[in-house]
Amino acid sequence: MPLPVSPEILVVLGTRPEAIKLFPLIQRLQDHPRLRPVVVTTGQHKELVDYVLETAGCEIAGDLGVGRPGLTLNQLSSSVIAGLDDFVSARYGPPPERISGRVREDHYPAGCIVHGDTSSAAAAAVAAFHLRIPVIHVEAGLRTGTTLSPFPEELNRQLVARIASFHAAPTRANVQNLVREGVDIGRTFVTGNTGIDALRWAAAREVPYGRPELAWLEDDATSPVVTVTAHRRENWGEGIANIARATRRLADAHPDVRFVVPVHPNPRVAQTVRDELDDVPAVTLTAPMEYHTFARLLARSTLVITDSGGIQEEAPALGVPVLVARTTTERTEGVEAGVLELVGTDADTIVASAGRVLTDPAARAAFSRQPNPYGDGHAAERIVAAAEHLVFNSPVPQTSGPGFVRAQVLEWAGFHRTDAVEGPSYVREPAAVDHVPADLEDVVIKPKSTVDPYDEVSE
Description:
The protein is an alpha/beta fold and 459 residues long. It has 17 helices and 15 strands.
């Protein structure tokens, strides 16, 4: 029986971390014989995102151009919703009025992939729902338990969870979080985290750092290196200042250690960090690093102090201890496994914990006793296999955790089930097939192929 959905899948992303964690998935989709990614960027971190995707060989189909200085969260969200609506309408025409009825052709997107917990991801999920496009949530199920920490990310990820038809969860604990919130376990799939896929790809390249301030790293293979990053909204102000003060104190207390601090471009963060650390000889301040060079830096590090979510998963994959400079974390599996230590933003606590790692080999070794709980580098492969099963009813992908049920995913997405002797099929009313893609002002649109050998596929 034909499943009347297009093999094109939207991938919407806005920030550099999203680009980093989604490029392995985009690469897999680009190489797939039947599924094709349509990558739409929002324009928030344009140069950084474009660089990551171009370096990984990922083609961008559209840029919504919503990134501009001073944009509030509400303005960002509304701009993404309106921009994605315009993009889809221009490329595919209007959405089907109902997701029901037996049809033989449908060129409308098979799904919309969003990642994580950004406001752009939440907005894209809302837009996709309004456009009758099933949402696939990558890195689903992370929770801290309070909607104000981190803000606004915690509520964003909960919002996407209510919309998504399919949840690609990094760990079993993430699935448990979703089930507690009422998500059918049959719509969840344990995949590992695509960030580990990206890290392994990037670290293997071993490209030069390419910056004068980091030239010493090319020749120095022995000095202990501590990498420090800080940018979370809830740490703005005193929290960022405390992390920087702790770094200054550690540099004074450990003269043999070098510190590398990639400074976030947000002026509120950058000014605070530079005020505290500009004059410390052992501290190297650098602009945000390209992903592959940052992966090399992580692999070179003795210790990482960070409030970043992704680094909490990436550094343990390289056996590097991580001190999490936040009061809460959604990466609780890492804390339980001992690969992360939650230290908050109190300078005394950070200095004491970092001092133990830097001076006590046993304390440092304790961080790597357990395997990294966040993945084995094959998450993107599993997600693409799941998408192929959902669209084409190919064999069910294997997993070490709970599996998912295709029928539950499609029914949640609104597909109408029709029963027949040969088994049920899932269909929807078609979108227009004679629509001509049109360019919008400031939005680049690349037409889809006019020849599609996979318009009709057998379940």
